[in-house]
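Long-time lurker, finally posting.

We've been working with Inner membrane-spanning protein YciB (Falsirhodobacter algicola) and I want a structural starting point before designing mutants. I don't trust myself to interpret raw outputs, so I'm hoping someone here can both generate the structure tokens and explain anything notable. Sequence follows.
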Amino acid sequence: MERRKINPMLKMVLEVGPVVLFFVAYLALKDRSFVLGGTEYSGFIVATAGFIPLLVITTLILWRLTGHLSKMQITTVVLAVVFGGLSVWLNDERFFKMKPTLIYLIFGSILGVGLLRGQSYLRLVLEEAIPLRHEGWMILTRRICAFFFGLAIANEVVWRMFSTEVWVSFKTFGLTAALFLFFMGQGKLLQTYGEKK
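Top reply, 14 upvotes:
Generated this for you. Predicted structure of Inner membrane-spanning protein YciB:
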């Protein structure tokens, strides 16, 4: 399928909507427990069980509308299904809390391997969106690689040392804000190494 552009607001709703709805569902269900098939499940597990199919559905809609999914989107969905599924199946919220750590470690490692080979794998993914000279791509890739490893460590610290409520807020707002602020902070690099089209 050829790539198609869709309304940016619709794209954002499809990408961010499941995470926001997970947050809302968690707030509504956090103090409740549910007995299904003789097993008691916390509100967190029930919210996770709802999040998984919602994420799959919105990702399929995005793919259908655009004709394309990034490797990051595919990996995120696969890890959400695997680790969210393990959390629900084993009734253990730790698996789902580990998912962001694994996502950031995987992408940080992929970028790190490219850097060791003298290449920017980031360039392969974003070259059309961000026109940069080679030096700019290498600097940006090093920064994002380190940033991903930093996010992985931050997620581990938060889910292991704080309450589930703190982690849900951190995952929903903290990680999103960190990504936004990081990319906003790259303006000087983009200006210095940008290529005129």
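Before you design anything, note these points.
Residues 1-91 form one domain.
The chain has two domains: 1-91, 93-197.
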